[in-house]
Amino acid sequence: MQSILGIVPLSLFLFMHLVFNSFAFSGAGSFDRFVHWMHGLPFLWVLEVFFIAVPLLIHLLLGFVIIYRGSVNITSYPYYRNWMYLFQRITGVIAFIFVFYHIWTIRLHEHFAGKLVTYAGMQKYFEPMFIKIFYIVGILSVIFHVSNGIATACITWGITVNKRSQFVMSCFSWVMMLVLGVWSIFILFIYS
């Protein structure tokens, strides 16, 4: 269930979130019109609660169980997948902090203030350098966590059963990390 929730609704949401934020490349008017359109969708809250928040909370709780019960054995077995196991846990914790900070300061603030996010508001939000740095670390942690999670799920589900297929999937996940990372950072700095 952990990997299904991480891949299906949450990875899809990450990709869609990047697509939606890419409206910033077309300028303030395009971004603001998209946000206004998005918030005009009927039952948006149903999507946010049942397809994002609930899967995220379940994934988070299962993740903490895995961290608590799991053991890192990189000193005894310093293999690639063991390092990825460790980095998956580290980036999961960083992603947890980042995602909840992002939800609190952007989405919930927007909801409680009764104002929609605007291009100008995002520019102001990203003015401080420490926010940009925090977002870069957070975004890259989320992207690593998702990309490596997909590669790990393919092993767990028996999709990549031999060394060659696992190597190909690992290469794919690194390419995915690079593409999504560059895309995310470009979006972040478009507001600067």
Explain what this protein looks like in three dimensions.
The chain is 81% helix and 0% strand. By secondary structure, it is mainly alpha-helical. The protein has a single domain (2-190), classed as 3 helical TM bundles of succinate and fumarate reductases, CATH 1.20.1300. It starts with a helix and ends with a helix.
Question: What does the secondary structure layout of this molecule look like, with pairings?
Answer:
Blueprint: H1 2-21, H2 28-39, H3 44-69, H4 80-113, H5 119-125, H6 129-156, H7 163-190
Helix pairs in contact: 1-3, 1-6, 4-6, 6-7
The number of helical segments is: 7
Please give the alpha-carbon distance between the first and last residues.
Answer: 39 Å
Structural class: mainly alpha
The poorly predicted ranges are none
Task: Give the domain tally.
Answer: 1
Percentage of helical residues?
A: over 70%
Shape: globular
What is the name of the CATH superfamily? Fumarate reductase/succinate dehydrogenase, transmembrane subunit
Number of strands: 0
Beta-strand proportion: under 5%
C-alpha-based Rg, rounded: 18 Å
CATH topology: 3 helical TM bundles of succinate and fumarate reductases
Architecture (CATH level 2) name: Up-down Bundle
- Name the CATH class: Mainly Alpha
Calculate the mean pLDDT score and round it.
93
Largest sheet: none
